[in-house]
Amino acid sequence: MAENTPSSYPLPPMQAAPPVSPWWLAISRQTPAFLLPIGTAFLFLLGWQVIAVYGKISPAILPPPTMILEQLRDNFPLIMSHSYPTTIETLVAFLISIPLGIALAALLVYSTLAQQALYPNIIFFQLIPKIALAPLFIVWLGIGPSARITFSVFICFFPILIATAAGLRAVETNMLRLCRSLRMSEWQILIRVRFPTSAPYIFSGMKVSVTLAIIGVVVGEFIASEQGLGYLILFASSREQTDLALGCIAILCVVGLLLYGLVVAAERVVMSLYDFR
Amino acid sequence: MLPEISCERVRKVYGTGGRAFEAVRAATFSIENGEFVSLLGPSGCGKSTLLMMIAGLESVTEGRVLAGGVPVDEPRAEIGIVFQDPTLLPWKTALQNILFPIEMMHRSRAAYVERAMELLRLVGLHDASNKRPGQLSGGMKQRVSLCRALIADPAILLMDEPFSALDAITRDDMNIVLLALWERYRKTVLFVTHSIREAALLSDRILVMGRNPSTIIADHQVPFARPRHFSIGETAEFNELCGMLRDEVTRARQGEVMQDGGHG
Distance from the CA of A233 to the CA of which of A159, B51, B162, B255 falls in 20 to 30 A? Predict the structure, then answer.
């Protein structure tokens, strides 16, 4: 075909894309990623402040954010003294639930008997609204930290168990055949192949679990305790000190964020040791 | 001299009673030392099961499998395997993956690093030794897995459709790589495939496996001289062989048993 003959099927003229994008897209592209969520939160707090101050709402119902900040400043030693046991108990419960969840998952994956005997029951167990069982833990174990820690472990080991079991099973059939062809023992396969393969699964389970651990401890404190942020929130609410209660909740958020950050940091370290890509 | 691999009326049945399923029936064949044999057949005919029994990864229901004259009842160090998927550990580099069997056999790693590098050079990956599987293409990963199967210098190499997950161009490349490796090391190879041209290009002998019953229905010598080049694929003899094999596989798929093992 001659190169200069015009095509018998002329293409429609190209349409240029509109040169300007809408302003909201321009904003989201040009601002750093962390600014937008902070800006939104700031606007929310500002709106809250305006409504609480000019809406003539009683501080017992909705104290303005500045009042909460004042409470945090004035009662800082008190709030900190109650934050300490809550944090420690959460951490202890979480640290117990990790090996517990992983060991149970390994048992379920390796023993068909355990799998058949336990797995349906564990699932059934999860269907119970476990919060409803919290008072019984107090009955069984008293009002000390052991009841709260046990209850917290009871609700937070499950995501680790499920995620680990999924991870241990994620090893492909041919990978297992390769291991067997290299005459690796089941223990070697577990340590050298199954665990590293399931590391990303275990960490995602831990991220869910660490938030549940705090819930467990705070619910325990609500029911019966003499210290802790849950206790202080309940105490403040009963005296209509809503600003103090909200201050405690803010600290609870900080504790949760710190613990979550700890898991993320641990994940980074482990993953860089293994270096998944 | 005894054949390197021999199967005597090997049968494999999964399950029991009414739900029993016969995956392989009375497969009998042998492979000489240093021979490259392809096992060709339609999918689901039991080729892979047969390979796994030779590898010692599946039990034999009836009959006998011998490797190096010794009955196979468990995996052995002198048998290397390449699977359909590369089965590399994602957190290890190419070199570490290749040395993984050495580690697991408790041999001295240092003594094998040089061999691993030589294998990587032979498959054209000498500058990828420190890359992780996530940074390698499908064909590159399969090359690494080929090196891993050869690192401990096994007498027998079993390959279970190793290139079937790759695109056609990569697959041709891999065939060339495998030809070069085989000509260098002369292992006894059993190569499971459902690609007729691949089998004809690579093998000294081709065993055709049928379905209903799943057994060896034909055994062909491949007459082409070595070293082979990809260009033999264009010769009339090559295409004639492929045509004949294609007829057999087609009939095997329909469940006909060819008593004479020939074409017609």
Answer: A159
**Residues of chain A found within 8 Å of residue B90, distances taken between Cβ atoms:** 276-277
- The predicted complex's ipTM stands at 0.90
Return d(Cα A77, Cα A87) in angstroms, integer.
15
**Contact at CB, B104 and A177, closer than 8 angstroms:** no
**Digit-coded pLDDT (tens) for A199-243:** 999 999 999 999 999 999 999 999 988 899 999 999 999 999 999
Cross-chain Cβ contact A180/B104 below 8 Å:
no
In degrees rounded to 5, what are phi and psi of residue B65? -120, 125
Mean pLDDT value across residues B67-85: 92
**Selection from A47, A50, A67 nearest residue A59 by Cα:** A67
Residue of B nearest to A181 (CA): B75
Mean pLDDT, chain B, as a whole number?
A: 90
Residues of B in contact with A182 (CB under 8 A): 75, 100-101, 104-105
What residues of A are in contact with residue B100 (Cβ under 8 Å)?
Answer: 182
Q: Are A65 and A121 in contact (CB under 8 A)?
A: no
